[in-house]
Task: structure prediction
Amino acid sequence: MVVIGVVVTAIAIPLALIIPWFPAKGSIQAGNVRTLYTVLLIATVPIFVLVETVVLFSVWKFRMRPGQEEMDGPPIHGNTRLEVVWTAVPAILIVSLCTYAYTVLRSNEDSKKGEMTVNVTTRQFAFEFSYPRSPGKQVVSPVLYLPENQPVVFKIRSLDVIHSFFVPSFSEKLDAVPGIVTTLRVTPNALGTYPVECTELCGAGHSLMRSAVHVVTPAAFATWLKSQPINGPPPVGTPPSTVTQAVPDYNAVPGAGSSSSSSPSSSPSSSSSSSSSGSGTSAAAGQAVFTGQGGCSGCHTLAAASATGTVGPNLDVRLRTDCANPASQKVRGTTLKQCIETAITKPYAYLPSGYSAGIMPSNFSQRLTPTQIQALVNFISSAAK
Result:
């Protein structure tokens, strides 16, 4: 039995170690996690083999044979020494592994000298990344760029529901919770492009809430950062001021520095002015709503907005076969713009065939201002022409 256990262990440990359990390693923290996982495998595989060997041997050796159905098993008295050993050894092993795991956790979470702050703003259904440059100045991007071997602290928040910021190759993940700012630290150490995912079910467009992180050389990062506009418009649209009033300021978080301007909506008044008086009801403003706080691009396909969502109806098709159909407009007594506005504010008034109620949010009249809704209508109607 001992020989069998040793042989199986010798085979099982290398097999467990060569299986690619994780994606490509992209950070120092990922290396720490992989080392921890290797230690856990080396410690647990022999125990698993030992237990299963004893169980299988006992099933074979002490099985009931014909004629023994009415017989009792032999009386066995407990072995105190053995009981102490099999209680003490697992206890010591568990405490040791837990202690090591705790040291890895603390190492991954410790602040690093010279770390760079990147603010992560999440909303349905997009990520937005901003880089504080100096007081009152920032660079905003829909894609994350990081310099190699540069410690980074992410300040993460949500403008609507609970999201989660996860880069599998970094082996680090943290939820974005409305009303608070959470902190995550990573030191990328491998050049490459890695996926960014939301791992909380945040709505109908959850599966489409993805981005990318590009880990580049420090020189390439400096060049990219310098080429970006300072205090440019948010890449996914400015959220309504009613959403941002309850969101904490990054400046209130120790270590965030000048990142209070990292979000396009840190000031409710500035958000309101930019989304109404600044942008107006033009088609361009409507496109910003469509791809931004409206979240339309996460669920619908519309070529004019480079949107490829598949949760809801294809607007390129629907605008030309339904709303823009003169016969349909005559039956409903609506113009194209009236039809679009109804589809936004009362999405189940004209439910397309093959789609069910309860998927598209029905509270856009509360989530968006009248100016934003009118801009969205103007943009969508212009795309039908």
User: Anything to note?
Assistant: The chain is about 40% helix and 15% strand.
